[in-house]
Amino acid sequence: MAAVYAGIHQKLKSHQTPWADKLKLARFAWGSRQCILPNKEQVLLDWTTHSLCARYNKKVEVPLEVEDGLWTYLDDILHSKNLNNILSHGKSITLNSALSQIINERILEGTSGTLTVSLSTVLSCCHGILTSPVLSVSYTARYDQLVELLVRVCRLACFKLSQLDSVEPLPVKVFEVLLLILSTYLTVQRQQGNSNRVFTQVTEHLLQPLCLVRHLLTTRAWTEEDDVIIRQHLNKDIRNKVDLILQSALFFHDRLPYYKEEVVPSERESVSKKGYAGNTLLCPVATILVKLVYEQGSEKEGLFYAARSNSLPLLFRFALDSFGKAEQNKLVCFYIMTKFVTALDFTEDLSVKETFNAANWSLALLSLENILNSCLAGDIYNIAADRIHHGEVQLNFYRKVAQLLFNNAQTDIPAWYRCLKTLLELNHQILEPNLDELVSSAWVDADNVDLRVKKAREMLVSAVLQTYAKLRQLPRLFEELLVVIRRPAADELRQELLPETVQKHLSQCLLDNPPSQNLEICRLILETMQNDLRYVSEMREESALKLFSQSILLNAVISNLKTLDDSTPVPIVRQTQSLMEEMHELVKSLLQNLDGVLITDAPWGEKIQEVSLLLVHTWHEADTLFQIHCSKYKSPAAEKCDINPVEKVLAIKSSAGEVISPLSRLLQKLLTLHSMKKHLLGSPLLLSDADTQFLCKAAQYVVKRQEPLINMSLDQTWDLQLCSVNSENYSVAYWFLLTNNLPLIAPYLSQEDTMYIADTMLNYLLQSDLGTSLEKTDLTVCLISKQLLQSVFFCELPGLHSAVVTCIMRKLFELLCASDVQALCPSFFKPVSEFDVESQDKQEHMTDILPSMERLKGIAQEIFNCGKAGLSIPVSETQVSSLLHLVKITSALNPHAMGLEDYLELFLSSFLINFCVQRDGSGALSAPVSLLKEIFRLLTLLLMGQNSPAILKIIHGSTLLEGVITSVSSGFSKGLFCNMDSSSWFLLLQSVQGFIQCLIQLIVNRKSSLRINLEKFTNFITERLAAIGPSSAESEQREGVLYIQLHLAIMSTLCEEIMLILRKREQLDEIITRLLEKIISIMGPAIQAMLTSKAGGVLRQSFTVDVVTVMIKSELAKASHQIQNSEEENGRYKFSHIGLYKSFGQQILKELWPAPRPMDFLISSVHFLSAFYLASETNKELDVEDLHFNILKAVHKLLSGAWLSISEVKELEAPVKDMLSQLMATCSQEQFNLLFLLLQDGLAASKIGGGCHTEVLATLTLIKLLACCSLPETCSKSFWLTVPQILSSLVFVIRKSSEMAALTGALTVPAVATMTTLLRQGECHLSNPHHVILGLGALHFVPLDILSMDDYYSAFQAIHEALFAIIQCYPKVMLKAAPTFLNCFYRLVTSIIHEGRQKGEKDKDKDSATLLKCAMLVERMYSYIGSTAEGFTVLSPFIVAQYVSELQRVTLQPEIKAHLTEGIYLILDHCFEQDIKFLNMTLQMGVKEVFSELYKNYVHYHKSQRQGEEKYTA
User: Fold this and answer.
1) Distance between CA atoms of 1077 and 1118, rounded to whole angstroms?
2) Residue 1456 · residue 1404 · CB < 8 Å
3) What beta strand segments (E) does 642-738 contain?
4) Cα 1366 to the chain's mean position, in Å?
5) Integer CA distances (angstroms), 742 to 673, 757, 762, 879, in order
6) Which residues have CB under 8 Å from 286's CB, separation 6+?
7) What would the pLDDT profile of 1377-1428 be if each residue is shown by its tens digit?
8) How many Å apart are CA 888 and CA 870, to the nearest integer?
9) pTM of the full predicted structure?
């Protein structure tokens, strides 16, 4: 056969052989072992390459299908295992150099759309060549060929990314090949010895396509159709490779002289003298920019400009990274930056070119912002060096940039504001000449309301305020602000002057500002307003608007002044008093100008009235506050009481009648509240009738029920700023004002006003969702109502609380239809006078009960009569939804704050719904069930109230318990539980159990007829369950199983509660044991019948396990009582259902671990095993030895389950710990040895790398829990003798698992936690300090970097807890191991300082809560080290030195720094004077400044306080 195929080579070369046959022969020859050809692989590769060359050189005609077949054949060869094996054994195979050129040309055709074969196949061939080190030489040996390939694949990728209208997803192969080519090229580029050649090749050929493909990848709006590999992996990897290529090629360190000679003027002059200006290498910046600037008027001019604007900041960042680290090179970086800025189509003088397209402003500003941010981050602008050495060249350039921004203000683009903010951060003097334009364009006259623009504008204004506050130049800023406000402008179009964010920053700035400057600001505003008063009588609207802006500003400043007190310096008090007098005169002047003026312009009148009221309000608030806190302050109003400003303002009339605006109404209410406060302050404790009448009238005015609330929209919001109050959000402002001042006005409200507030509040709540978060910046009426309902002071308003309860019951009857309720329970609507107490039998000791209690007893009797008769009220789905919402609102009320009558009536009303709810014919089933669940939850909450004992005065406890069962059981006849899913049924059962539990606890705690109530209820429920018998469960009817489950749930709850009474009241013990026996005798057959039923799978498995567990515990309680009272020494107890328990135990041991199970089933099973083991010990019939080992083995396998998450393992720890305590309490030495045999291989380091880390985790968990158990003496001795060996194994586990970042949370942290537990529990057992030091060494391996925030915190906390255990439990070891301990703790300090540094605005709030907890842990450790100074006194200066050395490198977040500073202060307490001198002498310059500031603050804030405390300490 071999001879037959020997001539294949000749046939492939022959012109007579058809191409299709040649291709078949070639395929056969490659794949067949029978084909013998010398150097077969090389021959077939050469033939394929030659054929393709002949085809594309047009030497031969090849059919299209054959051409495609040749490419496929080549692809198969290049990716075949055969070729890979040959090459791996060192055999040399070469590719024809023409093949690389052919591939490059085909890729070019693929971009232009003229390719006749599959592009994917061509790219696959390219991929096969480049992935083989031997074959890739065809490209890597020819640098120009590789560059050409990279250019063409980049253009192909750009072509695919630019097809926005294409419905086809992006081809993954294109980007995979592009990444491979980039990696190959980068390797070749790094091997090039001539950096000039690399620079030339990149700038000439690669710069444009690389920048374009990077831009398109960065800015693409990814869709779900795009492959996830491209979106998440290739996209990032390609951009990283492009960055590496460009940075290493364009900004290589040896190119710095060329850049310097080109851009630095002094160097440029020397170069021009030498005559090198024409050399490309001497003009690298110009060469780069030439390639980034595209011809004007091209079709894709917008795309090219976007690519350029995106690339320039990137290239500048590369320049900074390469050259900017050395101080002497920062000027070069600055000049490079100037070139890049002008490349955004700006002239050298930074004006806009004529060819600039206005549509590109957004791109240009984004690019400029990024460049300026790089300048700020790179610290290239040293203000002093620029002024002294460089003639302020940088300052002048940045001022040109600022002038460019102001000359071409783009106030609708957020980046415009951010550019100005960055310039401000570089140096405030840059914007100083244009301060008026800044205040005007970015603050006062800004009119864009877009959310992103608004946020950027507010951040800029806040930065301006903070900057001028730090410079102590706030008066200068406000002077400019007032000038801008007074300029002629369309004031009605201006946005609010002080939005919430600006107001917040202004408040902080004013609090930190010197009082004298704040008073100066107030005077500036008052002077400006005084100058504008002369225009008031002209009734010009713009003058009123300007006065309003000024009064808002004055209000904001005065409201945030530091209040005067007796410690305030006298000059400040006098200045403040003078200011208040001037303000008083201003109000008088304003009102005098308005006296007798008839308003013809209504808008002007509204604004003037608002200005007047706002000034009066501001003056009164400040004046009163100063009077209260400062005895040196004398109010100007005390001497000049000749005017009543409020009355004069309200007397303003227009030709159309009264002038009143929403803000004016709000201010009137504020002034009324102020008068109430002042009246109460000046009145004696016992108010006179006149005082009370005044306060009631004022409170009534604040509520003003007659006032129509305009636009009561639930979506309307208010930002808490007075300047933003209008007709649309007035209702929100009014409701906020009213609810926040309820503690003041509530005692003086009439019943009608109180009911009005309660009704309004309830209506708002019914229209909102209680489950939504309250964390919103802007307020709505619904949000305010929710905050009031959940507030602490709401409970302190009994009148309002009672009114809300009354409104809830009224609404309840409205929803249920009052006529239906009256037909069932007429006593609800009868007055109290109809119920006579005297007719009661005095022998019943009920003569002291109020008539209202008799009414409530009547209501209760009627409700239970309805329940027994099966009467109900039909409700629709809409009614159920409304009732559900109302019940949820009621559940939010505090039952302790309710009056007795309200409480009982609400309880009975809720019980009425529980009894009488019924679905109508079209109602959904789940709604009534969810309503029942919420009602039982509400009833349970009410039972926890302080008035709950009164329930048993109007109805017997057993009657109430029977009523619950009757009400839920009636749901079966009403069809409420048909086809209900198991989760909803389980939640309903839980709510019923919760109510039964609380009610039984109430009956037990009251000790009223306890025996009668329990016996009666037990007989009732057992008779009901016995009446239906097991036959209903054995049938296929689902309702029968649900019925049994309901009774089993209630019985198990009853058993759990009455077991708690056993042995507490000896006279009841016999009755309790008899009741338990009776209940268990009914539960056993019911459970067996339910398990054998075909419909038994309705409820989750955990329910049945819990019920059987309760049965075992009940029998154990009964057995314990009988054995204790037995006269025999070895009393035995025979369990009545031991067969059921045994079969349950066997089934659970089988099902516990092999497959994933619900967590509730696992927890229930562990609890069952604990109880079952105790039962086996008590019964003494089962094989306890085997059971002991089988339980431990099953639990170990369960914890080893790969399907359990770390959180689930932690959830299982508590029940497993209880179970271990039961098992180990009486365990023998043999049983203990068996347990250790089970755990002996669990800590093998080989299992970690072998993927069996869950077995290690299970062993760690059991060891940790075992250490916390109380063991018999012999077992305890054996355990602690083994612990040193366990600690050694733990070190290896920690070390091995730390090498894999994925195992940090899964294994490393649990291993550290186990070690910590062993060290804590072994305080009295571990005497060798080596074991403790071994644990310290292990902590060094725990990783603290490259972790998710959850893993980071868990690792941080684990290390801290281990260190804390060591320092707390082993103080003697610390005397020698203190340096090792501090080195480990230093890792935590370094880590939190690094992670807690200040970041950008986007990451500002991210993970801050977690990092704050870490900082608190560090503070805790510092505190403990400071309190146990022994062993650390000598090392205190080194602890401080380590801290300040790390602190000097970053700027910490203020909250984190506060905790760390408080901790380090406690270490400084133990530093002596010579320690401070030592630190000042040894610390480096930068660190020394940080330490000096720290020590200065320590002396000022901490040391003085500590010395003051010590002075009064015995």
Assistant:
1) 8
2) no
3) 653-654, 657-658
4) 34
5) 11, 10, 16, 32
6) 262, 339
7) 888 888 999 999 999 998 888 775 555 556 788 899 999 999 999 998 888 7
8) 26
9) 0.80
